Amino acid sequence: MGHIRTIKDYLAEASFFKEMDNRHLELLSGCGKIMHFDIGDFLLKEGEEAVSFYLILKGEVAVESYMPACGPMTISKCGADNITGFSWLFPPYRNQFDSRALTKVKVIHLNGKCLRSKVEEDYDLGYRLMKQFAQIMLQRMQDNRRRILDVYSTEQQVVI
Amino acid sequence: MSYEASKKYPMQPVPFHVLKMQEEIPDCYTLTLQPEFNVVSSFSPGQFYMLYVFGHGEVPISVSGNSFEMGTLMFTIMTIGSVTKALCSVCVGDVVGVRGPFGKGWPLEQVKGRDVLIIAGGLGLAPLRPLIYHLISHSADYGIITLLYGTRTPDMILFQDELASWDDRDDMRVFLTVDSAGSEWHGHAGVVTELIEKIGIDTVRTTALTCGPEIMMRFTAHALLGKGLAASDIYISMERNMKCALGHCGRCQYGPHFICKDGPVFAFDQVEYLFKVREV
User: Fold this and answer.
1) Superfamily in which the B3-102 domain is placed by CATH
2) Mapped to the 3 state alphabet, what secondary structure does B33-101 carry?
3) pLDDT over 90 for what percent of chain B?
4) Is CATH 3.40.980.10 the classification given to domain B108-275?
5) Where in chain B is the domain with CATH 3.40.50.80?
6) Domain limits of chain A?
7) Which of A92, B29, B74, B93 is such that its CA lies 20 to 30 A from the CA of A128?
8) Yes or no: domain A7-37+51-60+75-88+104-156 corresponds to CATH 2.60.120.10
9) CB-based contact (8 Å) between A104 and chain B?
């Protein structure tokens, strides 16, 4: 009979949680549950209370913002082994963007309120978790800075 | 003027007439030029020609067509300044002056037997297209061919039909990314350097060839170095205003190099230190 994989097993395999030890994974998995989304379903909705962050196990998710007259504009995309949802970390705990399933998606949903209470009790867990989040936020900030520079602009090229 | 004569008098433009003109994306056209009298000289992917619009001036433009299609030359041009605007305003049958080919192209020999990672930004796909034609027509000589291509928006993607046909090939992978898009976009969203993180690269057997605005190439080169590629395995195609295209006038001097003669393609280890010098 095959081994039934637990939330902890999934977390242990994810790059994001690679620095977590067994005890931390145990604590984190207590806040997690597996969820499935269909194409077009929203994982996160802009303006709503931010109580979730997701580890994507399968499928693809778009981070979007709705622009009047343009519709939803895709800002970035996340696939398997990526995470989406940062707003649960800091006040005012409101989602700043939409996250929408582009394919059928399987995720581990981690409850932000549950996580916040656990990291308040265990600063070592909090430090490791924040270190991982900071690394991803730094990467995404650098990517967005490059995007702001409009690196494909013909104005960057020699004018002739 | 014969081909031999054009080599003897490299400053003298040879008349070509415009055979075809195709709008690729807004303000960007591909011109197919045919010589009035003589045959087209062979060129190497990555080399450039000087195109003269009589009464307006001359500009360096890399070839965007196939080096195996003898008889015509193709150039993909964005209207940026007055001369490129004039070039994009010509009609079929009009005559323009052509000098070249000039410079050193992509390192086809050095890349043989290796995986080739091609990274293009915006209009930078145009000078890489002859290289792609060469690689896929000699695919047995090369390892995995991967193209990463980034633009601002989906409607700024060049050569869309060809990109799809290249992606259908077994010997080539194509990944597209745009800065932002509507929900109909199925590619990646983000700058092209993000794709480098997402694909697997064998850093020992991969050579990267990149073309686009200088800032895009700088970020790309740094991302590749961060992944473990050697600077000598990264090639970039530099751009500067050029005048003579022969390394005489000094207009395109870049440190100790003349881009027209020593480039436009350079190994990154040749010019890396110059990227750190501002106002070069």
Assistant:
1) Translation factors (2.40.30.10)
2) EEECCCCCCCCCCCCEEEEEECCCEEEEEEECCCCCCCCCEEEEEECCCHHHHHHCCCCCCCEEEEEEE
3) 69
4) no
5) 108-275
6) 7-37+51-60+75-88+104-156
7) A92
8) yes
9) no
Task: Provide ipTM, 2 decimals.
Answer: 0.75
Question: Of the candidates B59, B193, B198, which has its C-beta nearest A146's C-beta?
Answer: B193
pLDDT, tens digit, 9 for 90 and up, residues A117-160: 999 999 999 999 999 999 999 999 998 888 888 888 866 555 45
Q: What is the pLDDT of residues A68-99, one digit of tens each?
A: 878 899 999 999 999 999 999 999 999 999 99
Q: Do B156 and A152 touch (CB under 8 A)?
A: yes
Binary contact (A151, B121; C-beta < 8 A): yes
**Radius of gyration over alpha carbons of chain A, in Å?**
18
Question: Do the Cβ atoms of A160 and B83 come within 8 Å?
Answer: yes
Chain B contacts in chain A segment 39-68 (CB below 8 A): 62-64
Which of the residues B83, B191, B239 would you substitute to probe the A interface, choosing the one with the greatest number of A C-beta atoms within 10 Å? Answer: B191
Interchain proximity A147–B84, CB inside 8 Å: no
